[in-house]
Design goal:
Blueprint lengths: L2 H7 L5 E6 L4 H12 L3 E7 L1 H11 L9 E5 L3 H13 L5 E4 L4 H8 L13 E7 L7 E4 L9 H17 L6 E5 L10 H14 L7 E6 L1 H5 L1 H6 L12 E3 L3 H13 L4 E7 L5 E2 L7 H19 L1
Parallel strand pairs: 1-2, 1-4, 2-3, 4-11, 6-9, 7-8, 7-9
Antiparallel strand pairs: 5-6, 5-10
Pfam families: PTA_PTB
Keywords: Acyltransferase, Transferase
Family: Belongs to the phosphate acetyltransferase and butyryltransferase family.
């Protein structure tokens, strides 16, 4: 499966995306591409005059496309609040970060009364297409949870499994990554992996197959797994890689992009709606893939 298949799944869904602080030329380029593909409608929150000026200069056809609405916000904090409220009130299905600090957007998301809390952990789910690999690989969590404990890892698995199911994998294979593939009492990642694997086998974690601890090579390479004498339904065939902490996740994420030239779409899961939280450094292509992934996740929530 390729990321382009996710794009295909995201077309003609009637999804609506609320963008906080949308007055950014690169972001509006993504909006225009998504509108041309008929992926979604957009509610743009930001400085009204600035938004209209950017659209007039770069994508004037958007104004009469029927794909966008513009609502004035006095600043980025106001834009984040208004965008979150539109999702909470079901006027939009997806929240997307524009030219607003991540901390400002997440503060609005996590507001006790007005936000999008569910009681679950929010986690980053990144779906990669790696050239030469026979399937998409999902990495979690590379951006939100610093050093997740056992209970948080269980919720991170749940979030990732729901996203991967939304793109067509019925029973995702989850590999719990560690430096080694044996339980070592001095390595917390291996202890957590052993417990989570057992919880899956006893039906306490459902909807997926889990195995771990597994080193990265044994998780993604059948040959490497056989060399180590590891036999399981997951080893060498993982769909989801659960990393032990944010450092390892961040390194793996950026290694795939910069060393392997991998393509990626990523969202935040665990809130009442998918959140597209891309950075300014992300390519337009990556932002479109992230939006497509969010649309699939939103449609899966509604089904």
């Amino acid at each position: 499966m390729k990321l382009d298949k996710i794009l295909e799944k995201s077309v003609n869904t009637n999804a609506t995306v609320a963008i906080a602080a949308a007055e950014d030329p690169e972001l509006l380029r993504v909006v225009a591409e998504a509108a041309e593909r008929n992926m979604a409608n957009f509610i743009l929150f930001g400085n009204h005059d600035a938004l209209e000026a950017i659209i007039d200069s770069h994508r004037p056809w958007l104004k009469n496309s029927g794909k966008i609405q513009i609502f004035h916000a006095v600043d980025s904090t106001d834009a984040a609040k208004l965008a979150v409220e539109s999702v909470k009130n079901k006027k939009a299905d997806i929240l997307m970060k524009g030219n607003v600090p991540t901390a400002t957007l997440l503060k609005a998301v996590l507001h006790k009364e007005l936000g999008l809390r569910t009681g679950r952990v929010l986690s980053h789910v990144a779906v990669f297409e790696v050239e030469g690999y026979d399937r998409l690989i999902t990495v979690t969590d590379a951006a939100m949870n610093l050093q997740p404990n056992l209970e948080q890892k269980q919720q991170i698995i749940h979030n990732a499994v729901q996203i991967v199911k939304s793109i067509g994998v019925d029973i995702p294979k989850v590999s719990l990554i560690a430096a080694v593939e044996v339980v070592n009492p001095a390595m917390q990642a291996t202890l957590d992996a052993a417990v989570l694997t057992q919880m899956n086998r006893r039906g306490q974690i459902t909807g997926c197959n889990i195995d771990g601890p597994l080193a990265l090579d044994n998780a993604i390479s059948i040959h490497a797994a056989k060399q180590k004498g590891i036999e399981s339904d997951v080893a060498g065939k993982a769909d989801i890689l659960l990393v032990p902490n944010i450092e390892s996740g961040n390194v793996l994420y950026k290694s795939l992009i910069y060393f392997a030239n991998a393509k990626v779409g990523a969202i935040i899961a665990g809130a009442k709606a998918p959140i597209v939280l891309t950075s300014r450094a992300d390519s337009a292509e990556s932002k479109v893939y992230s939006l497509a992934l969010a649309i699939c996740a939103a449609q899966n929530k509604q089904s």
